[in-house]
From TrEMBL:
Pfam family, one: SelR
Gene Ontology CC terms: cytoplasm
Organism ancestry: Bacteria, Pseudomonadati, Pseudomonadota, Gammaproteobacteria, Pasteurellales
Source species of the chain: Ursidibacter maritimus
Listed name of the protein: Peptide methionine sulfoxide reductase MsrB
Listed EC numbers: 1.8.4.12
Length: 131
């Protein structure tokens, strides 16, 4: 089920619906190291497993591989006067962040995410936490 706009915080609206970006090194999941699944905060679509998370040093949670080919949607983004690839939730179209071709192997990708756009489901307890 997709959350209605009145169920989202102001920050979630700015990031997920208006393609905003949280400030670097401020996100709740930047240093998260528990085992679990990162999901879209708006519709709970599974996006990334914690074993694909790595420290890119960029200030945002980073992953090298999405859960599936359909979990994300990719769009060309020229908003900063240069080409980037925006990533959106493949289910509800919420803005998640961007993907860059400078990540580690085996994919060589760095999916750079806004914590505010994510929900984390911890494997051990099933606890869910919004970014």
């Amino acid at each position: 089920m997709i959350k209605d706009i009145d169920e989202l915080t102001e920050e979630q609206i700015e990031i997920c619906l208006n393609s905003g970006t949280e400030r670097p090194f401020t996100g709740k999941f930047l240093n998260e190291d528990r085992v679990g699944t990162y999901r879209c905060v708006r519709c709970h679509n599974a996006l990334f497993r914690s074993d694909t998370k790595f420290d890119a040093g960029c200030g945002w949670p980073s992953f090298y591989e999405a859960i599936s080919e359909t979990s994300l949607r990719y769009l060309d983004d020229y908003s900063l006067g240069r080409h980037r690839t925006e990533i959106r939730c493949g289910n509800c179209d919420a803005h998640m962040g961007h993907v860059f071709p400078d990540g580690p192997q085996p994919t060589g990708l760095r999916f750079c995410l806004n914590s505010i756009a994510l929900n984390f489901k911890w494997d051990e307890t099933g606890e869910e936490i919004d970014g």
